[in-house]
Structure formats: C-alpha cells, structure tokens
Amino acid sequence: MNPLLLSHFTATTCVGRGLAANLAALCDERSGLAPCRFETVDVDTCVGEVAGVDDQSLPPAIIDFDCRNNRLAQLGLAQDDFIAAVAAALARYGADRIGVFVGTSTSGILQTELAYRRRDSVTGALPDDFVYSTTQNSFSVADFVRRTLCLSGPAAAVSSACSSSAKVFGSAARMIEGGLIDAAVVGGVDSLCLTTLYGFSSLQLTSTRPCRPFDRDRDGISIGEAAAFFLVERLPAVPSPDAILLLGVGESSDAYHMSSPHPEGLGARMAMEQALAGAGLAPEAIDYINLHGTGTRSNDLAEARAVLSLFGDATRCSSTKGAVGHTLGAAGGVEAVISALALRHGFMPAGVNTQELDPALPLAYLLRNDARAPSRILSNSFGFGGTNCSLVLGRADAVIGGA
Amino acid sequence: MPGVGAFIDGIGLVGPGLPNWTVGEAVLSGNASYVEQLVELPAAATLPPAERRRVGRVVKLALAIGYQAAAAAGQDPARLAAVFTASGADGDTCHEICQMLATSDRQISPTRFHNSVHNAPAGYWSIAAGAMAPSTSLCAFDGSFGAGLLEAICQVLAARNPVLLIAYDTGYPEPLNRARPISDAFGIALLLSPGRGEPTLGRVDVELTADAADVIADPALESLRTGYPAARGLPLLVALARRQARRQVLDYLDHRRLAVTSTPCR
C-alpha cells in the first residue's frame, strides 16, 4: 500500500487523558488497572476505568447521543488539539472529503442495560427517554464523532470485536486509495458495561488481579475503556522526519472457533504476513511488536507461536494491556497510539505487571522499557470470531529514501 | 465527484416473500407478483453440529445469502474476502443478556455472550466456509447497506480480488423492537468482482451525492426498502432484475447518499 500520514493522534485511557499522560505512564512503567468499582458490578476483577467520563455533558443539539460511550468519545476528542487539527483538515479538503471510521465492540449498550432496569412493570416497555439509534446502535459513536467534527464524508462503525479499531485503518486507506476521500478520522471507543464484564467473566477469562500478559502465571484479562483517534492523510511530498506513517495493514480470519484463537496462531500469522507484505518489509525490519497479549492462557500462547514462527525469538515485543487493560474495540487504536508514541519518543514500552515470563513462550519480551529507538513497529489486534488485524507503523525518516 | 465501481457476479437474497434470488428476480422484474410471506431461514448446514445448534436467525440469514451469491458466481466461499454489514447484531441474544443483567442473577451464558458480538455472523461464516480471508463487520444504522457497498467495492479495487458483500438485518423482540422496529428478516449479498467474467450480471458504479434517495413504485417493495436497512439496496436489484441501465440514488447517511449506476452485462 501507499504509506499514509498519521498527522494527528490522541488517546484517553485509564492512565490519563491525552498523549502526555499516556506517555508519562508508559515511561514510568505504570499501570492504571484497579479493582472493579464500576456501577453495580460484582465481578472480582480489575478494570481500567477512565476517570471523569460521566462528568462529560453533551451539547444540547446532540443530547440524544448521551451515553457513557459517547461521553468517553467526547472526552477523547477534546485532548491534544485533535478537534483543531481536524478543523484545519476540513478547511483544506472540505467536509465531504473526510471519512469517519470508528471501531467499537459494545457502543452504548450500557444505556440499554440500564433501561432494562426501568421497564414498565405492567407493559414491559422501555422508558420513553431511551433512544436506541443514538446510544446502543454500533453506529452511534461514529455518528457522534462525525457530528462533533462537522464531517460529512463516508462513515461507518467497524464492530469486529477486539480488532475493530485496527481494521478502521484499512477502511480509511482503501477509501483514500479509491479516491473517495482525501483524509479520514479513524479510531476506537469502547466503554465499561455489564455485558462485557459479566460476559468475559462467564467465559472465565477475567483475572482477579491486574492482567499479566505472557507471565507464567497469567490467568486472564483486565477489561479497560478508552478512546483513541487518528487523522489519516495522504503522504506529503516532504514529510517531517519524525512524522508517523501507516505502512501496512494485514487482515485475516481464523475459521476456527468463536471465542478461542487458532491454537497455532495461523490466522494471526497470516495477518502479520500481510501487514508486512503491504508495507513491503521483511520481518527483520520490525524493531518492536506491540502484541495483542490479552493475558489469557490460550491467546498469549497462540500469539507467541505465530510471532515465533514468523519473526523468530529476537524481535523485541510486549503487550501494553498491563498498563491500560484490554480496551476491546478501542484496543487497536490505543495500541496504534502507543506505537506512535514509541516511534516519536524513541523507546520500546515494557509489558508492566508481568513478573516472570512463561518459559513456554520464548519471545524477546520486554519486562522493562528499552531505550533503543524503534523505526518500524508492528501492532497486533485479534478478536472474537477469529478476526485478526495487524498494522505496521513507521517513522518517515526510516522509510523515505529506503533507509 | 469521482466514483468507484465493480462487477456483480452473483446475488443472494432473502426477505419476506423473497426466499431467494430466483424468486426475487422474477418479482423485481415484474414477471411474478409479490406475495408477502414470513421468512423461513434454512439451518446453517455447513456449520459443525455444535456450532449449528448455537446460532440464531441473524447467522442463518447471513450464511444463507452469502452462499447464494458465492454459488451464483461459481466462487469457492473459502477463498472470498467478505464485508458484513448490519444495523444490529443478534437481537434475541441482546435482549436475553439485557434481561438477565437487569436481575440479581447476572450469570449470562458464555455462548450467549460470544453470540452477542456484531461480528458473530462473520465468525460463523469463516468457520462454516473455512474462510481464512479477511472480513470486516460494519454498521451505519439505516445506512448500513451503503456503508457495506462502498467498503466492498474499495476492497475489490485495493486487492483486485472478488469480495462478498453480505448485508442483513433481523429484528429485536420486545421491548427493544418498539425502539428499533424491524419486523422480520432481510438480506442482500453481492459477489463483487474486479473484472467482467462469464457469470457477470452487471456493473455497478457508485459515487457520493446529496440527491434524495429514489423510492420503489411498488408499495409492497417500497415498504420492504424502508423497513429493513439492508433493503435500502433493493432499487439496485430491481435494475439488475430488469436488465436496465439506470442511475439511482440509494439511502446512506443523513445528507450523504450513494448515486448508483447499474449497467447490465447480459
């Protein structure tokens, strides 16, 4: 694929609002996971809850969109002058020429969960203030972003579980390549809700402790919530040396099981291979892999096998879910932001919480931050239904001129 | 405004009174009269028995139309990239989960949980067809058909390979159905291809427009078009059934619709 410029980006996670807070937590090897106190949930697990989400109030004109997921989207959009960057792009390209593709797995389902507690005792009807289209529906968050940013180009929510906000980069790249748009706002927003907390608990996939991906004693995930956004544009003739580029997107399906990965990580390997092929890179060109690394026994094992078979055991890697949790439909976007921060600031982030690496997964897994500056990073996102997506990001100074 | 386009090599259709594309083609071309009938979905016979027992209507619908379109085009489903698009996931499962979560016993079943994801049809399709090719799962509320059509054509152009578009909707039970009224089930699948071949039925070229969406003159078909997000694509199927070269406007987003030019190839 033709490289694309990731001209602006931002993330809001449990470790903080915006890039500076997230960078500081990564540099300090700090986790934002804490015992779950969310709503009325009585699951013994840790979560990555974003502080102050429910303090957000939506503008009166779009008050029908009010739900935790869109409050988190609004909080996320407000960081790092992202709205101003999009406004400048809008002035350059026109509102019709900027697409919006947002990944989410559960959108505003919490609003429906709460409405079901307030059903009419006689008729069973949901309360009159419940608005399906602008809260529960998966498109709600993409539509909210579109309206907030005054964009009118093509738009969709991608809802492919935990690969959602990696796949949005592919949708944007193809539509830019097809000439339908000049730029896109992509990202992911997922917020805490009862469906995922009780659902992953029912699958016995939630850890009672902050998750420890690739640890010998790893025992499950910590669910997080987050909003991450990128402005994607065509590559200018002379990008700045530290510009962050999208170099490749690879996608595949496991064709194996709805909630377990292919045991050999075959689908994962195909996605990574295709991302590398799209970027025109050999595996050796990748300096660091931001693993999907959820912290479940089987996911980490399958991913390790896929990475070992393609990269061998020397490529440095880690999962940053110990810091921010598994943010599900936002994970691809969040981890693309973390990868972009690593490229911009010249370090490779450690997998925090992990104490003792699983000897059965002999990867070059970083337990501490590595001060060497990466030039090209691969980021993995895999999800329920066997959906896989890998991204390759790189610095312009490493890519332009065939460095 | 530049556009994008692809060839249509196969069509899958299931809706009230439209059990398959053979019947649908006859009805939409005006050669048979439309008789409204509730949708009967075939069992997902290609899934392993354990999975087959677990799937609901939304998966059966997506698989049924996907196989129709692939078979019509003579394509091996295992090799096809697929774009799934729907306004909602499995409505029955969503209702059951929300109902349980509103009680003191919140122990939802693991199967119900993984069936609740929007991409469950894509996951089951991949298992049923043995398809390791990429798929994506989109939602644009009432504009989901348009979102899927744009994504699928852009994938055809990017990969120079056939792509299967699977657009489908099933409803929620009450009380959610009142908030999102979808009564039965409706799905359209299109096998989109980069080049014209033996099975090619026609070509579709798409550009964005602010023009108003076209309606279907037949009131029964028009009520299908407005009753199901996936059926927003029906005008395109009408033109293909009648072998008409036409420019029509399909619903997509507020103030942003798709001008779709269809050209028959046989």
Outline the structure in words.
The complex is a heterodimer of chains A (403) and B (266). With 403 residues, chain A is α/β, with parallel strands linked by helices. Chain A has a single domain, classed as Thiolase/Chalcone synthase (Peroxisomal Thiolase, Chain A, domain 1, 3-Layer(aba) Sandwich). Chain A contains twelve helices and 15 strands. In chain A, the strands form two sheets. In chain A, strands 1, 2, 5, 6, 7, 9, 10, 11, 12, 13, 14 and 15 form a twelve-stranded mixed beta sheet that branches. In chain A, strands 3-4-8 form a three-stranded mixed beta sheet, with no helix packed on it. In chain A, helix 2 packs parallel to helix 5 and helix 8 crosses helix 9. The model of chain A has no long low-confidence stretch (mean pLDDT 97). Chain B has a single domain, classed as Thiolase/Chalcone synthase (Peroxisomal Thiolase, Chain A, domain 1, 3-Layer(aba) Sandwich), CATH 3.40.47.10. The mean pLDDT of chain B is 97. An eight-stranded mixed beta sheet of chain B has the order 3-2-4-5-1-6-8-7, sandwiched between helices. Chain B has 266 residues and is of the alpha+beta class. In chain B, helix 3 packs across helix 6. Chain B contains ten helices and eight strands. In chain B, 59% of the residues are buried. Chain B is 35% helix and 24% strand. At the A-B interface, helix 4, helix 5, strand 6, helix 6 and helix 7 of A face helix 4, helix 5, helix 6, strand 3 and helix 7 of B.
